[in-house]
Here is the input.
Amino acid sequence: MNTRQNQARLAGLLYLIIVVTGIINLMYVPSQLIVWDDASATFTNIVASETLFRLGILAAIICYTTFLFLPIVLYRLLHTVSKNSAIWMVVLALFSVPFSFSNILNKVNVLTLIDKPDYLAVYTQETLEAEVMLHLDFYYNGIQMLTIFWGLWLLPFGYLVFKSGFLPKILGILLMLGCFGYLINFVGSFLIEDYGSLGIRRIISLPASIGEIGICLWMLIFGAKTFWNRAAKT
Here is the structure.
C-alpha cells in the first residue's frame, strides 16, 4: 500500500514540475518578450530581459528532463493494469524527449545572436532581428510537431487511468479526449491560416488541460487512496 501511494505521489510531484515549468516556458516568458509581428520589439525585449529569456530556457530543460522520469514512474504505478498499454505510454512519451532537447537549441542560438560576437559585425541590426525571429519561429514550429507526441501518449495513459480502479475514471476519459484534442489542433494549425486565433482551439484544448492538471493534483494529494480504501473494506 505504501509503495503504491508513494509512487502515485511521486508521479504527481513530477507532473506538477512539468506543468509549472511548461507554463513558464511556453506561456509566461513568450507573453512577456515576443511580439510576433514586430522583430525589432522582440529583439529589444529579449536584450533588455535576457535573464527572463534564459529562465524560460532553463524551465524547458527542467521540464523535459523531468519528462524522462515521469512515464517510468507511471509505468511502475500502472503496468499491472495493462502491461502493453503501459509500454506504449512510455515509448510515446519518451520518443519526444530527444526532439524536445534538440529544439531548445533554437532558443540557445538566439542568445548568441543578441550577444553579438565579433564575427556577427557583418550583420546589420535588421538582419540580427530577422535571425532572432527566424530561430524563434523554428522553435515554435518544433513545438507544433512535438504536440503530436504530447497528445499520443495521453491515449494509453488515459486508458490506464480509466481501467485502474484507483484513479478517477473521469480523468482517464479527459486524458484520452486530450489526445485527440492535441492531434486536431496540430492538423488545424498546419492546414488553416490563423487557426491559433480561433476560439475553437482553446475549447478543444480543455480536456487535455483539465485532465493533466487534474490527474497531477489527484496523485499528488490523494495518491492511490481510492484503491486502497476499497481494498481495505474487502
Remarks:
- The two ends are 14 Å apart (CA to CA).
- Residues 227-234 have pLDDT under 50 and may be disordered.
